[in-house]
Specification:
The structure is a homotetramer. Chain A is mainly alpha-helical. The first copy, chain A, has two domains: 3-127, Voltage-gated potassium channels. Chain C (Four Helix Bundle (Hemerythrin (Met), subunit A)), CATH 1.20.120.350; 140-233, Helix Hairpins, CATH 1.10.287. Chain A is 67% helix and 0% strand. Chain A is built from ten helices and no strands. In chain A, helix 1 packs across helix 2, helix 2 packs antiparallel against helix 3 (44-74) and helix 7 (133-170) runs antiparallel to helix 10 (221-233). The relative contact order of chain A is 0.10. Chains A and B meet through helix 7, helix 8, helix 9 and helix 10 of A and helix 2, helix 7, helix 8 and helix 10 of B.
Chain lengths: 269, 269, 269, 269
């Protein structure tokens, strides 16, 4: 592996060196700008006024993302491992839609392009990789995932039963036209969101609704109890190391690792 | 007890053997489909379009549930213990309404039948029996049940007092027509649901409402504190054993149990 | 102190003997009926229909409460300690308004009487005295009271600042007519109630509102953390003893107490 | 440092002496009155009626605050450290706007003045300095700040992605006119506020909304778990000492400190 490739890999994939940090921050700024552009384009008044500026900015960002994508492929020994990884696909989907839009452009297709652009938002997710604190959070969440899913499953069942009941009691007077809609209302109520677009009007319906609300208020304690317990158990020392193997792109290495624990490649020369 | 009966019991009531797992998953799929059908039938546009398809699907599911119900009775030594258990009654109520509907069918009775069908939803509850994680959750909830009930009782008393007060302050201007309605509004507010169909309009009413909201926001901590404490105490090893006694249907057995701790029947031959 | 007085005291003030339990349950039922009557009377349609029945029921309940009040005074050595205690005043206020209503009756005064009746609701609070579990809850709440008040005080300050800001940004377009109203809206939003009768409409107002909501969602963790910590520390053995000193009405005694720790009076002969 | 200056410093900046306590309580009352006045002035009906009274009260409060500001500068050795501290700037901004308003007065400027007055509200924040309990709360919050920010950042990202999705699904039928508005709606929903001014109307939109709500209901456990863990670790003995160095205004001193740990100045003569 040539020296320039190794150095490029360190800059692009890691955040330990000054250059690597600058690269990450620069990329973060471009991503935030691109997301802001997608948002602003969706506002009709802004789109009418600055259509040309949006078009130019879109071109510039697309080119930056394309260069970054090519660099990521070049700087790694096994490009397939990057291309078919989650972030590899997200990176491709961040540039491809724009090119498709530019080639098959037209008033009708414009909306569809904007829809594809949405996926670029996922790029922002990469930032969390760089924040050490998030690792411990993720660990606590992963450990309590099964229990939270069981809990949320119970919540959904309560909503299905209560929703069917509310449909029978309220019927169409309160807007509980059908069971799926009533279940939607139950979820809105049990999670204590409470939009108010649908609300019970009969005394019995309101009585049942009170039960649903008190249940929702009482059982919110369950996921909290789980996460608190799991979080207390999670290790105190989050791994802040951002070392990435230039051969196979494995990201989790011990702080004093010299060789990749997965492919045996030398991490630092 | 003949060998085939014992094996049938194992397949139907337990989930330890491959066949038992397949049976449970198959049953789960049928239950989900039947629940989805009840939901879809309640949507008028779908009912008008696919009335015949719904009728046929209903027949098929009813027959499947009937066969399952008969098998459950056959494969157990003391059928009465199953028939009069909670799930036995739920199973009966999952099939009986359909037959009653088919026999005494008619436009007017159709709605009543659909109402009875609701109970089939409860069948879904059985799934939770098969998930090991839920046992520990249930244990923590059961241990903190008394405390949570005391807390919810206090919440209801606060709502009754605050509701009466709001009725006197707001009267009919803000929609607080009578005390039960005002109590309903208080529950909506204290549990932080907040539909907005009823909302205070007088300055004093809004001032009291602010107090109710801040109280609700502050005391939500109480059930959470209880569950967290109890959950931390709950045993770490949930019982994942699904062994069911073929004689008396007792479900809770120690992992290495050879005889039912209740009736002394041999569990595995 | 004569024997009959001591026994009467035990029946009325305590719940350790079978007779005492029957008395408490009977009283509880009467209280619930009286509260239900106050609620039902506030519903106009019910009042028009059953005005006479409500009047008779009111008389019966008032007489029961009056007899109970007299018995409570008779059965204690130092009646003043009961009369001027919190529950003594509540008991008096549960009967007096009815008599005043009956004497100075009239269409106009009817509403005022109903207002006074509200206080009878407080009688229900006495029930919680009889539930052992609530003691530990109260202890945890009392220990964390100071911290929760500091937290709620911080919440109120955030609401005042954010409310003033929202009034300046939104003005009267979004319904933020004046600062008190905007503060009310902030409390509604920060506590995640969200009625929706007032909602920001300007982009900047919505941006600030988003911050308020995320703050409210994030800091709800604070009271929870406090109560969980305090609850874990609260003693595991709640005092279930309902012994009340027949001389001075002191309620908190150790399980094996023979003499009142306050006045030295013999508790059980 | 003259004795009178040292004593004045103790009265104004500290709360250990009886005079210091009286000064703080008096100031607190004036602050509360001034905040109440700002609120009441914003209510049009009150402003029309009591315009002159508000004007006079404003003058009195401004003069009190001015005297306090001058005393604070006089009684300290290094006035610059106070003037450019957070509270020094807040104190200045509490008086300056009133003077500017009085000099450049006029109907049009009246609103702008009121806007500047808002900052006086921040003065209330100083009260929390005097409450010992708040220190431990602040410590727990400061320790969990990084983790809560990571969590809230994740919440914002979820809202951006879900908001874009909802805009594409619902479009303008449900009021999801553009992406920023849809993100605002997502924040309203995920934080379980739920105003209801914007609500999904399409079946698919409601399905996605259900997911957002259940997510919001489930992950509220995360900040709670963090704060509970951190709060449990925070030291049990909050520092109740209000000793302030008369030379450099450092506020955190150990209970038995004789010299300022920062500038070495003698704390008590």
């Amino acid at each position: 592996m040539p020296q320039w490739k190794r150095q490029l890999h360190e800059v692009i994939y890691e955040a330990d060196t000054p250059l690597g940090k600058i690269f990450d921050i620069g990329l973060l700024i471009v991503i935030i700008i691109s997301v802001a552009l997608v948002m602003m384009e969706s506002v009709d008044t802004l789109l009418d006024k600055y259509a040309r500026e949006f078009y130019i900015a879109e071109w510039i960002i697309t080119i930056i993302f394309t260069i970054e994508y090519i660099l990521r492929i070049i700087s790694i020994n096994k490009p397939k491992r990057y291309i078919f990884s989650f972030y590899g696909i997200v990176d491709l989907l961040s540039t491809l839609p724009s090119y498709i839009g530019f080639i098959f452009g037209g008033a009708n297709l414009l909306f569809a392009i904007r829809a594809l652009r949405l996926l670029r938002v996922f790029r922002v997710l990469k930032i969390t990789r760089y924040i050490g604190e998030s690792r411990r959070l993720m660990l606590a969440l992963r450990n309590s995932r099964a229990k939270i899913l069981v809990f949320l499953f119970a919540v959904v069942i309560i909503c299905i039963i209560a929703g069917t009941l509310m449909h029978l009691i309220e019927g169409e007077t309160g807007g509980f036209d059908n069971i799926p809609l009533s279940i939607y209302w139950c979820i809105v109520t049990l999670t204590t969101v409470g939009f108010g677009d649908i609300a019970p009007v009969t005394p019995l319906g309101r009585f049942i609704a009170s039960f649903i609300m008190i249940t929702g208020y009482g059982i919110i304690a369950v996921p909290t109890g789980i996460v608190t317990s799991e979080y207390g158990r999670a290790t105190d020392k989050p791994i802040r190391n951002t070392q990435v193997c230039p051969n196979c792109n494995e990201t989790r290495h011990l702080d004093n690792a010299q060789f990749c624990h997965r492919c045996g490649y030398l991490l630092n020369e």
